[in-house]
Amino acid sequence: METRLTWYGHAAFKIKTATGKILLIDPWIENPAFTGGKNELASLDQVDLIFLTHGHSDHVGNTVEIGKRTGAKLVSNFDLNAAMVSTLGYPEGQAGNETTGHLGGELSLLDGEVQVQFVPAWHGSSIQKEENATPIHAGTPTGLIISLRDGPTIYHTGDTDLFSDMALVKRFHKIDAMLVCIGDHFTMGPARAAEAVKLVAPKTVIPMHYGTFPVLTGTPEVFERELKKRKVKARLRVMHAGETIALDSKVKN
């Protein structure tokens, strides 16, 4: 069995583990980049964990609907967890301390099959119950390092700018797949994203958070040029919204 990764467009991903567990990250399934979003959302009847990097609506997306239908546990930092329950109505019984952490902390989930560590991201985090409602602060945004037993280690940067402490990631983790925002405007663009990849030194890099809206002008083509300019050795894998790929196992020491 292998680990499979699906990109839904924007920052939304599905991980299917080798044992068949389903993990979602920032599941805005019905985003404009994914034409099959409505059907895919309806078909998600088994989800074990939902990971959130921060509270903005283009990342929270369909989390509450999916959680209520599937019983998925919410994995996020403490403040975001509290805001999701109190403001958006995520089921409190599916958002307990066992799946709630914070920066630097590491959680062991699903009987040790999944490990997640919360790492910094330079961005913001707030939740709105409705489009024009007053934003509710939702704590510090994070990136997520998800390590699968007998499978790959995946670093989802969340929304972030480049910052020098990204270099610390590789001291503690050998990253098989780095899911990195490249869109510019609200996050780092291709040049700064390429520099982030150089700091982390993953085996494979997959760009995300681009092309969903006109203001997200970063492209994989420019990102590839910036990677080559820096002589980054990571393999670039550009996915299409709705595409599923197999992920290699852990980087060998």
Structural features:
globular; 16 strands; 7-stranded mixed sheet; 7 helices; alpha/beta; Metallo-beta-lactamase, Chain A; single chain
Describe this entry's structure for a reader.
The structure is a single chain. By secondary structure, the protein is α/β, with parallel strands linked by helices. The chain has a single domain (3-240), classed as Metallo-beta-lactamase, Chain A (4-Layer Sandwich). It is built from seven helices and 16 strands. The strands form three sheets. A seven-stranded mixed sheet has the order 6-5-4-3-2-1-16. A seven-stranded mixed sheet has the order 7-8-11-12-13-14-15. The radius of gyration is 17 Å and the shape is globular. The two termini are 22 Å apart.
Helix content: 10-25%
List how many beta strands DSSP finds. Answer: 16
By CATH reckoning, the class would read: Alpha Beta
Number of helices: 7
The number of domains: 1
Distance between the termini: 22 Å
**What is the overall pLDDT average?**
96
Overall radius of gyration: 17 Å
Indicate the CATH architecture: 4-Layer Sandwich
- CATH fold node name: Metallo-beta-lactamase, Chain A
N to C succession of SSEs = EEEHEHHEHEEEEEEEHEHEHEE
Question: Low-confidence stretches at least 5 residues in length (pLDDT < 50)?
Answer: none
Question: Biggest sheet, in brief?
Answer: 7 strands, mixed
Task: Tell me, briefly, the overall form.
Answer: globular
Strand content: 25-35%
**Could you give me the name of the CATH homologous superfamily?**
Ribonuclease Z/Hydroxyacylglutathione hydrolase-like
Instruction: Walk across the major sheet and give the strand order.
Output: 6-5-4-3-2-1-16
Going by helix content, strand content and strand pairing, the class is: alpha/beta
